[in-house]
Amino acid sequence: MSLRKAYFLIFLVLIVDQLSKIYVKTNFVLGDEVVIFDWFRIHFIENEGMAWGTKIPGEYGKLILTVFRIFAVFGIGYWLADSVKKRHSTYLIVSIALIFAGAAGNIIDSVFYGVIFDDSTHNLATIFSPQPYGTWFHGLVVDMFYFPIWEGDLPAWLPIFGGKHFMFFNAIFNVADMAISTGVGILLVFNKRAFPKHA
């Protein structure tokens, strides 16, 4: 796979990711939900950028996370260019491109959203607002895809979790997260094709 095709895939993911985030950010108030199906909803939340809303504590936690992710993207970018140069498997190159695009998509939120959008808590956000909600490198990541496929109490006979309330699937995510998960999934499922053993 050529580097040009990898760039096109990255560009496509970034465009879809950012358009979906900007649409939700400017058409939903924080916490708004649209039910598409009972098991699929558009639910607008924002977070610091880590899985399940986890964040690094402290005054500089968000900044540390954003800077770390930027360095990580540079590393992934080098891995992508090197893999294309060495003519590695298309499975590997597609995976790296998806992971790169997903990481870059969430970095855009973290770096820029705090200074181009105003607050979404009680009103629709406006883009390029004169009163932004944050500062550079302190933007919140926009998430919206929610799949509460099943919710209920687990059978009492189950070890550890028996009798407890449980929801599958309770994570809310975005296109960038989907790209990262797909890239990692390809590496796991098609590991032998992504990393073939040469004679």
Key attributes of the depicted protein:
single chain; 199 residues; alpha+beta; 5 helices; 6 strands; globular
Summarize the structure.
The chain has helices at about 5-25, 60-85, 90-115, 175-190, 190-195, and strands at about 35, 40-45, 140-145, 150-155, 165-170, 170-175. It has about 200 residues and is of the alpha+beta class. The longest helix has 27 residues, at about 90-115.
Written account of the structure:
The protein is 48% helix and 15% strand. With 199 residues, the protein is an alpha+beta fold. Helix 3 packs antiparallel against helix 4. The radius of gyration is 19 Å and the shape is globular.
Whole-number mean pLDDT: 92
The major beta sheet can be summarized as: 4 strands, antiparallel
State the end-to-end distance.
Answer: 21 Å
Strand order, largest beta sheet: 1-2-3-6
* Unreliably modeled segments: none
Helical coverage, percent range? 40-55%
Enumerate how many helices there are, as a single number: 5
Quickly give the structural class.
Answer: alpha+beta
Radius of gyration: 19 Å
- In sequence order, what are the helices and strands, one letter per element? HEEHHEEEEHH
Please describe the topology of this protein.
Blueprint lengths: L2 H25 L5 E5 L2 E8 L13 H25 L4 H27 L24 E6 L3 E4 L11 E4 L3 E2 L1 H15 L1 H4 L5
Antiparallel strand pairs: 1-2, 2-3, 3-6, 4-5
Helix pairs in contact: 1-3, 2-3, 3-4
